[in-house]
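User: structure tokens for this one?
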Amino acid sequence: MLLLRTRELYMEQDDAQTDSVVSLAANIVGERINTRIQMLSSITRIHSGATIREPRRVLAELKERLMYYAKTKNDMNYKHLSVADADGEVTTPEGGSYNIGAYDFFQQALRGSATTSSVISDPSGDHRHCGGFIAICVPVHMGAEVIGTLSAVMDLRYAALFLKDINIRYNGAVLFLVDRENTVISNSGVFRDLNMYVSAPTNVFKFMGGILSEQERGELAMQMASAGDSSVYDYASKSTGRFISYVTLPHTNNWKLIAVSSSNSIRNSQQKLLMTLGITFVVLALLLMTIILVVYFYAWRSSRLQHISNAMLNTTGLHLLTLHPSGLAEDFDGRFAELLGLPQQTRRFNFDEMNTEGRKMFPHAPFKGGESLRLCCTAPDGRNIYLLIQIAKAASSGIGEAVALDVTADENLQRRERELAYVNQLTHLPNVESFSIMLKDKIAAAGADYGAACFFIGLDEKDRISEVFGRIVLQKVLIKTATLVAEAARKFGGEAYSLDYGDFVLYYEDDDPRPLRSIVEELRNALRAPFKIENHVIEIASSIGVITYQEYIKNNTPTVDEVFRNGIIAMNLARENEGIFVLDRDTYDSVLHSIELEHALLHAVKNGELALHYQPIYDAIADKICAVEALARWNSPAFGPVPPDVFIPIAEKNGFINTLGDWVLDSCIEFARTLSKMDVCIEFNVSAIQLLQIDFAEKFASRVKNSGLPPHALGLEITESSIAFGREASTREKLEAVRGAGMSIYIDDFGTGYSSFTYLKDMEAEWLKIDKSFIHGIDGSKEKREIFRAISAVAQTMGMKTIAEGVESREELETVLELGCLYIQGYLIARPMNAEALLRFLADFSGIESLKDA
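Assistant:
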């Protein structure tokens, strides 16, 4: 009975020590995985100058941003980083694509949880490496919405990093990191050479054929499948006596860390020792039966076990000690004292005197078994030593029997990874992620009383500097700019941050607004001063946008996104206002109105808010209506009728003009089927932005040819600005293709742009529309009549017909007819009208005399 009880006690001690060291290893592996997840999550946070965020733009911006993390990808041994949209579609830098929507890790990330994959083949379809891969996937948020994922794919050959320098020889000579199908991701102890690894996905139970029976492997597999929490579970082989511990890692797709005991482990040594002691005890009991030999036996056993334990601990890097809640450490060996830089003969010291972590750890509450601590200690020589301490067993007094592990190397690696995540690697200023975290904390602490100023600083000619001087010089310019901004921040007690794309922000927190002008002048003067880089003298043109919240956000708590959005708005307005702009209430409301108007315009076509009106063009020779001009009109439910000179520039600015132009073309083609039967041409305007499309001519010509309309049933109007500034050759080619499809070409508003008769000749337009500014009051202006006569004469020489726009009176009509212009457009003939009214007008029109009564 005594031997059995002794064996049970040692088994309990061994189980507790095994669970402690396996838990330590699991904590280290979990922290390494979580650090990678945090780094990927920090990359997904994008704040650009766009005032309207769309998933497609956000993901495109993130893809561009990944180019700045090429070094990080190599440092972290990733094969590639990829961005997937909500459908799992990934576009490669080479233009290819693939889909990861079927993978569990993508679906889980799309639900908002960062996770890891099982061992998979390369999702990109790259089969040059036949081994397995794992993926770490984090969601990409736009506000509260998950719009896609960011995935990092790692070859299994680099998965050994998860178990690097973790060598638990106390009870397990072999560690396995497996996925939820028990496929080996990484191992420690199977191959002695770190350059050797499992080259193809292999089930962990293939390594256990010699230590577990087939039935035991099945039992262990079922137990592992049902283990869902992060507790340490144990399994002992009845056939071989080998001991297997496993634990499920958090923030993973059910990955597990498995520790397999070695044949020369403490457990086996103890079993052999217990057997030897049992035989010895029986022999001594039978031969001597004396109490002295029994005492000697226990003394010998204790000494032997202590020697074995010390020998094993020396090879594992673990240190045993007794830790008091006050921070007092004792009962440790000389190796632990040497690790901390203390004299080897030291037998006790207090951690509270060595802790430099920045927060007071001691005195501590009474310790409990299973509790863990992470301490930073400063050795006498100035070194920082990081310890992970696990309380294996605690007495009722709160004093704990502990195991300490030196994790300094792992802490340094994590510190480097944090620097990559929160510090701009070029300027060494805190990056946009740090700025976001700081703002969030400040706003949360202050609430509606939050008041501060943010100076958003943008370099206006970054691309120009890169083109002229090269990328290296641009990088040095950014570094110099960061230094100047940081110096200004220190001078006024502010904080400097480096944003993406070479922009900066100076954060100044003070209720007194008077220093703001001084800070602006300091920044402007510092950035204006020329400085020399290599052999180049550089002058920086900058834009400084200032936002102060209490001016225009009353009793509302701003969000981090509002800070970025308003800062970018102020910086963009500064470019239009001599480089400095302070965002005030009126400008804020005006910008918001423009943004809302722009957003409404994006849905106007789909919601049927846009319509075409038509203004007739009169042919004086035939005394009939020969054509109509299509004019877009927008009646917004939110803003009422919006003039074209308001919404057309907005459409050109945000790229919606191409969609609007396609709608106008399709609508005109449909209506032209009716007007062509009445021998009336329909003409419509094309923006200069539309002409910049590569496929403009092919798209328009194809639609017109496929419509089946007779030649010249459609006409295309372009302005003078569309054919100037070096684009005449490209424009001429596109217009020739359109003209070849049977469309007439009109030059609109002639006389108000930048063109010349040379450009007009090259364009070979058939019609020239003289702007209404030359028509109004022409009957009483000799100067306007001479200009009109000259334009008409030159146009006639070039074979072009002229149309007088804006004719509103009989006197103006008679004057332009006398000057030789026979095609008239204006309110005198008719105002713009919808299609139904136009058809009635054409049916009732019987010549110019029929308009006398009107």
